[in-house]
Structure of MarR family transcriptional regulator:
Amino acid sequence: MSASNLAPSLEPAEPDRVWFRFMRLHQRMLIQMTARIRALGLSIPQFDLLSTLTEREGISQSELAERLYVTKGNVSGLADRLVQAGLVERRAIAGDRRSYAMHLTPEGRRLAEAGIAAQRDFVANTLGKLPGDDLTELDRLVKAWRDLARAVDAN
C-alpha cells in the first residue's frame, strides 16, 4: 500500500458515507477472517466459543451466551457440536445438577490458538500497519461511536 492511500482525505466527511465505508470494511474483514478460520475447519461462531474459553475456561453455557452476545439455545447447540467434534468437554459443576462447566480439549485448545494466531496476523497486516498516532485516534473515535450507540440503546 502506498503512502498516498494512507493520506487524509480533504473532502468533508458525511455520516452516511462514513457509515457505508465502515460497513463495507466490516464485511470485507469478516469475509477475510472467515476464510482464515474455515481453513482450520471452524466456523466463526465455533472459533468465537473456543477463543472465549481460552480466556476463561470452566464457565457455564449461560456465561458463554452472555460473553458471545447470543442466546443460551444458540450456545447449547454450538456446544453440542463442539463436544461431538471432540473440541470441548462439559464437566459437572459441584452443587449444580443443571449446569456444566465448559472446558477445551487439547485439540480444541490447539485450534483456538491457531485461530487466534491467524487473527493476530491479520490484524498486524491491516490495522497494525497504521501509524501509531492514527491508530490511537481511530481507537478514540471507535470508542466515542460505541458510546453513542450504547446511549441510543439506553433510551
Notes: The beta strands are 59-60, 88-93, 96-104. Helices lie at 3-6, 15-38, 44-55, 61-68, 72-84, 106-125, 132-154. The longest strand covers residues 96-104. The chain has one domain: 31-154.
